[in-house]
User: Which sequence fits this backbone?
């Protein structure tokens, strides 16, 4: 069974964390054909943290997990912190194939998303 | 002339700021038909800051500006800080129509972008 673990930074502001959970739910509903499990976790400041998020995917029956960083830039969190936590956790699950996807700013679709967001505001300009 | 001002948080890490400038350049090339000007600015920690970014758009000939927040969540920066700086700056340009677009996490395209990023990693799983 294939799983996605959406990983955001985590915030002291509950609404920001709830937005991540809401995006994960939309992703779950959108990817039913390709992924059996979609969970969310946080690097810090919010529950669940990445190790527990990976554990939950495994408990849900995952045989492979794609860790999907909900980050715009390739900063320290993306380049060092998330890979370190994932690799420290992965040693407990040697039978599970765990990969980390690129950060969002690396996607070709980002420019389309930006253009669409701009058009949302443009429609208000007379 | 219509302008987009892409506004990111700004980082002490030059590479993160350069990634924003690179995204702005891609957006510029992608939106030549709809927008005459695409510039970038930062909320803090990096140059140019938002007031100078707006000034540059006006100097480039903009008659309307869409401020496009390069932020994932509707945190304090999106809800308070950017609107406050934009509105403080806008009083100097009463003839320019300035609108703020939604943050990126609010876009319907975000789920498609996430699914595509996951597929990038999935293709590496045997």
Assistant:
């Amino acid at each position: 069974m294939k799983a996605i673990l959406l990983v955001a930074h985590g915030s002291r502001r509950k609404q920001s964390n709830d937005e991540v959970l809401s995006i994960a739910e939309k992703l779950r509903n959108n990817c039913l054909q390709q992924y059996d499990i979609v969970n969310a976790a946080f690097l810090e400041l919010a529950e669940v943290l990445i190790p527990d998020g990976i554990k939950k995917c495994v408990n849900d029956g995952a045989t492979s997990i794609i860790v999907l960083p909900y980050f715009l830039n390739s900063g320290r969190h993306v380049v060092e912190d998330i890979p370190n936590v994932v690799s420290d956790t992965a040693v407990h699950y040697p039978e599970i194939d765990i990969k980390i996807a690129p950060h969002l700013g690396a996607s070709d679709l980002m420019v389309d998303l930006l253009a669409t967001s701009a058009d949302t505001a443009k429609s208000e300009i007379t």
Q: What stands out?
A: Helices of chain A lie at 14-30, 50-59, 76-90, 109-122.
